[in-house]
Amino acid sequence: MKPLICIDCKWHIAKEGSSLIANYDRCKASEQINLVTGESTYKYCESMRLVGGECGMDAKLFELNQAEEIPNGE
């Protein structure tokens, strides 16, 4: 079985500039909305997956990203 990694999750938000050394990807499942400004903030994927994090080492919030395939018109 393939390991449950954040990049395969539907809650994953990729950030430009992320690399293996510095990962800035965010988790949409951690969304917090500022009631005054309406702006959303998200936690880093890595902090969500830490022991004691909301998702944890067991990937409790993981949902497979199953994007719908667009027919090519054939």
Secondary structure elements and pairings:
Elements: E1 12-13, E2 26-33, E3 40-44, H1 45-49
Antiparallel strand pairs: 1-2, 2-3
Summarize the structure.
With 74 residues, the chain is mainly beta. 7% of the residues lie in helices and 20% in strands. The relative contact order is 0.22.
Overview of this protein structure:
The protein is mainly β. Helices cover 7% and strands 20% of the residues. It has a three-stranded antiparallel beta sheet with strand order 1-2-3. The chain is globular, with a radius of gyration of 15 Å. The model has no long low-confidence stretch (mean pLDDT 84).
> Cα distance, first to last residue?
33 Å
Ranges where pLDDT stays below 50 over 5 or more residues in a row are none
Number of helices: 1
Structural class: mainly beta
- Rounded mean pLDDT is 84
Strand adjacency order, main sheet = 1-2-3
> What fraction of residues sit in β-strands?
15-25%
- Sheet with the most strands, sense and barrel status: 3 strands, antiparallel
Protein traits:
globular; single chain; 20% strand; mainly beta; 1 helix; 74 residues; 3 strands
